[in-house]
């Protein structure tokens, strides 16, 4: 049995979509048990809307909720009975293999490291979302709160990311590139100049050199290694620019009678194509290198993304990801 | 008379579009003289295609060309008779007020600082392109080669950028924000944490705090301050993601008969709207804080962008930008 704790109270669509996602996930796998953590009476009521194998969902009562605006460190420390802290403790205690939350990113990052803790030998736990590209998806590692990483951390990120892409995402012999401001080997800031030769000499990965940000959406590498500040900028600009461009396109299409008619005809096909490029669709960003798995789903996740994140936890466990990380890193 | 040197041999469309842009620019202003720098016979031949006030264009012969792939420092040092080095020397000697090139970015950044030189008191010369947003344009400063800047440099960038946005772009009381990974004051890496209070206490600018990358395309600040590595990632991702999304949209629209018909109808309106969001349209990125002005236009600039860049140099001179920078910075 694989046990996954889900923060039923975190995110814009909590608890409805979280509970629904859990009910859908247990329908898919009979070796999966979901622990819905949050206000018992609320979750109970939500669950009455679904038919599902009842033995595969358990409610864990937690009265408090950590809000997105709260300072993360303080929230994790003070709100001992919050759905997030309780959920993370289920992993810490070994009752659950993984924890999924759509709540405060900051609190998840802090809580994951402080409560669940890092695998021995892992120096930083990177947050690694999948981002859409022209060729499929790439793993962006690190987008976490661990800013000002040092070069050896980037090498660990590359190794951990390679294992994840190969074992969980199923990409054979995935390529690794480091984000830089030019394609040449001698380009970059101090961090990248120091990390480049370390990556080049690392035998466990398939390093292909520098990647300029313009090449990322083209899918020129499977694993995009960067320091967390840069990763955060890339991830958020991906979201913001996508939204703005799609908004622009909608405005453009609604500007004349002729274009409105065109929009009506093109809409279904266009929607289908653009769906692939929605960052939130790949919303399950794992915080890797912990004693267990912690997955951050997008704040506005719907049931389908929650279900995907839970199933992702199952693959992670099945593939013995942490055993493999320990083997390569520690 | 305002004198502008133009690198006739730099960029993907050299010399044709560069020469054409120069001919168009001198048609617009009779107080402007353009010095076309490059192979005399080639430029002469190109010029025969246009009618223009002949006294307002002068050819400066330069036999060599710096290629984009060349290591910048070496290229500037070795190719003394290249169009770029000769053009930069025209500014250095005071013969020209400004230099425009669509050639190698690296060589322009190096050459601008080494040959033209920085204004006394300016510690780093930032490259500051305008990027399209939902509300118009924002100035992204710095996107240059000066990676690993320190906090006081960012404050200078904010000041110089504010003067440029107000005087040349014409935005009254422009707002300044610093790129960060959260909206709260205490977020960020060491550099941003150090720069934030300095920016907050700087009286010459209208500082509004942090900006997350997701808010940049929404036009939430007029001047986006960041270290060059981050700026480069933002600029290049802007280009790359825009291209990829537009490619996706085209594919989507061509996928069914119905959508093809829709595309045909919507295309003119869509094209018009997306034009505003083309980074290359705002291709004239000034390298600020030098003893003169150096403008880098996009490598694939057409005549219209070259003309715009030249006219931008006229505004820069008319607005006495450098006098104003000296006043505030030095």
Descriptive account of the structure:
2 copies of one chain form a homodimer. Chain A is of the alpha/beta class and 330 residues long. In chain A, 45% of the residues lie in helices and 16% in strands. Chain A has 11 helices and 11 strands. In chain A, the strands form 2 sheets. A 6-stranded mixed sheet of chain A has the order 3-2-1-4-11-10, with helices on both faces. At the A-B interface, helix 8 and helix 9 of A face helix 8 and helix 9 of B.
Helix content of chain A: 40-55%
Any low-confidence stretches of chain A, pLDDT <50, length ≥5? Answer: none
Shape annotation of chain A = globular
Write down the secondary-structure element order of chain A: EHEHEHHEHEEHEHEEHHEEHH
Structural class of chain A, please? Answer: alpha/beta
How many individual β-strands of chain A?
11
Largest Cβ-defined interface: A-B, 66 and 66 residues
Strand content of chain A: 15-25%
With strands numbered from the N-terminus, the spatial order across the biggest sheet of chain A is 3-2-1-4-11-10
Largest beta-sheet details of chain A: 6 strands, mixed
């Amino acid at each position: 049995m694989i046990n996954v704790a889900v923060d039923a109270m975190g995110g814009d669509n909590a608890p409805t979509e979280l509970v629904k996602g859990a009910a859908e996930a247990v329908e898919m796998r009979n070796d999966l048990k979901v622990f819905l953590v949050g206000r018992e009476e609320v979750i109970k009521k939500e669950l009455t809307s679904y038919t599902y194998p009842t033995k595969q969902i358990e409610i864990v009562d937690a009265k408090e909720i950590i809000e997105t605006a709260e300072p993360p460190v303080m929230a994790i420390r003070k709100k001992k009975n919050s759905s997030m802290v309780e959920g993370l403790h289920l992993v810490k205690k070994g009752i659950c293999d993984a924890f999924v939350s759509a709540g405060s990113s900051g609190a998840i990052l802090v809580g994951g490291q402080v409560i669940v803790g890092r695998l021995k030998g892992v120096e930083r736990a990177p947050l690694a979302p999948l981002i859409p590209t022209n060729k499929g998806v790439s793993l962006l590692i690190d987008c976490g709160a661990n800013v000002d990483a040092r070069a050896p951390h980037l090498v660990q990120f590359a190794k951990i990311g390679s294992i994840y892409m190969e074992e969980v995402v199923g990409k054979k012999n995935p390529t690794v590139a480091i984000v830089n401001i030019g394609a040449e080997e001698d380009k970059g800031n101090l961090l990248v100049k120091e990390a480049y030769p370390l990556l080049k000499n690392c035998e466990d990965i398939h390093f292909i050199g520098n990647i300029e940000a313009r090449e990322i959406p083209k899918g020129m590498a499977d694993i995009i290694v960067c320091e967390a500040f840069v990763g955060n900028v890339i991830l958020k600009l991906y979201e913001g620019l996508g939204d703005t461009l799609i908004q622009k396109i909608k405005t453009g299409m609604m500007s004349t009678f002729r274009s409105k008619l065109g929009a009506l005809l093109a809409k279904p096909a266009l929607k289908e194509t653009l769906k692939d490029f929605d960052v939130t669709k790949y919303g399950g960003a794992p915080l890797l290198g912990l004693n267990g798995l912690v997955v951050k789903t997008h704040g506005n996740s719907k049931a389908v993304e929650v279900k995907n994140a839970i199933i992702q936890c199952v693959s992670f466990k099945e593939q013995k990801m942490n055993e493999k990380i320990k083997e390569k890193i520690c």
